[in-house]
Design brief:
2 domains, 9% strand, Uracil-DNA Glycosylase, subunit E, alpha/beta
Length: 299
Amino acid sequence: MSNEDHFSSLYRILVEAEDLLSGTERSHLPYEARVSSMNERGWDVSEGAAAVPGGTAHRESAAAPAQPGSLDAPSPSEPAPSPAHQPEASHAAPSIDDSLAPAERRRRLEAIAEQIRTCQACPLAMGRTNAVPGEGALDAMVMIVGEGPGYHEDQQGSPFVGKAGRYLDKWLEAIGITREESAFIANIVKCRPPNNRDPKPEESEVCSPYLKQQIALVRPRMIVTVGRISTRILTGSTQGITRIHGTFFRYEGIPLVPTFHPSAVLRNPAYRRPVWEDLKKVRNWLIDNAGHHPESTSE
């Protein structure tokens, strides 16, 4: 039994014992969610933790240039992924023909969006008003990946359209990006979880093939995950967002930088400076490696 399985078993025993002693059966966070919550509060509980299924990223000492849409392995000059983060064949991105014309890639994205709108693969479908496939530009400078739709997104069928979405637009504008021309915005799950709770692992697993196909077709120069859920799933790291924001990873060969979720920054203005530092790293990498030419931005 691995350390992770051992600790998970001990955790279940402890919470069941608490219920027996209190005489009340309560709802407890799963072990993985409790670990993530402790990391968020500064506890170092990541030693020995395995990568989240599907995570194929690794920490980089410096992000190397990546060609748009490249799904190649890291170059020999880059540090190799740790054993916990080794890609698994079952989680590899779908094979997308690099010679596909933009019109065909757009057609396939629309076909995926239609599949998402009619998807009944998990219980989230029963409570949705609209599925939220995602939207934006092909060959995007940045692909933003959040955790899931909220109330306004569920009502409109578009990602990040509420208060947090308007705030996200300001972040992108600050580094010379617009969602219409140079960004693609999506989420891990495509339907709103009840009461905006975190997506369950099985819900994320069901939706992950949609996101992988979107990434392969959009061919973004860089991925930015916002919040701990999308960061954990795409990087495979169990460390909290407060520890790893602004760190360079790679997902299927594409540079990835995590940062805080806009809604978290609206609740806690102390995160504004760290987010701006993260965004400057994104902007500078795009300038140096992806031909990005933003207008001057303020500090």
